[in-house]
Design goal:
about 190 residues, mainly alpha, three-stranded antiparallel beta sheet
Length: about 190
């Protein structure tokens, strides 16, 4: 269960990076027909980025099915919007090329780059949603206990080295220690 949770967290971080990339490319290179599109993209991306740590802390770590389900439903919105915008940029001429004295990035490059990033983002989001379903299904299997334990005790050191170079071995089952002088040949 904890391994599945760790994979989910890793993919969630990757998903946040993709959302941020798509948002920045979308805001700077795509000309939208309405100001509401800019607001929708910005607000939707902000909600996705803010919701990710909240769903981990309030939903998954506390095994709250309601918050996790709301996040799952929110995850369904992004793929539809991305597919719509990719079709829109390929069917309409709404890419604003970036040109810095003739050495810029053209429309085709931006379209291809945005399509590749969007495809990777859709793949990561699909896998993330599948993992979220598995994590929700495994609630009650011990993940809550792992998070409620708090920080684990650190194990004792096996040895210490003093300033004069002597090594003190510390047995793990006893409180006695063995002092090895700095010039001894212990193999």
């Amino acid at each position: 269960m904890y391994r599945l949770y760790s994979v989910f967290i890793s993919l969630l971080k990757l998903d946040i990076a993709f959302v941020l990339n798509i948002t920045l490319i979308g805001l700077f290179f795509i000309k939208y027909d309405m100001i509401a599109s800019y607001v929708g993209l910005s607000v939707g991306s902000a909600i996705s980025i803010i919701a990710a740590p909240l769903v981990v802390y309030l939903g998954i770590m506390r095994e709250n099915r309601i918050i996790s389900s709301i996040f799952f439903l929110w995850c369904l919105a992004m793929p539809g919007y991305i597919i719509y915008k990719i079709v829109d940029i390929w069917t309409h001429d709404n890419i604003q090329p970036w040109d810095d004295q003739g050495r810029g990035v053209g429309q085709w490059t931006i379209k291809i780059l945005l399509t590749i990033i969007s495809g990777a983002s859709l793949f990561v989001r699909a896998v993330l949603m599948i993992l979220l379903l598995f994590v929700i299904r495994n609630y009650g299997e011990g993940l809550l206990e792992v998070h409620n334990k708090g920080p684990q005790k650190q194990s004792k050191a096996l040895f210490t080295v003093s300033g004069d170079g002597s090594v003190t071995l510390i047995p793990q089952d006893e409180e006695t220690s063995i002092l090895i002088p700095p010039n001894s040949n212990v193999q």
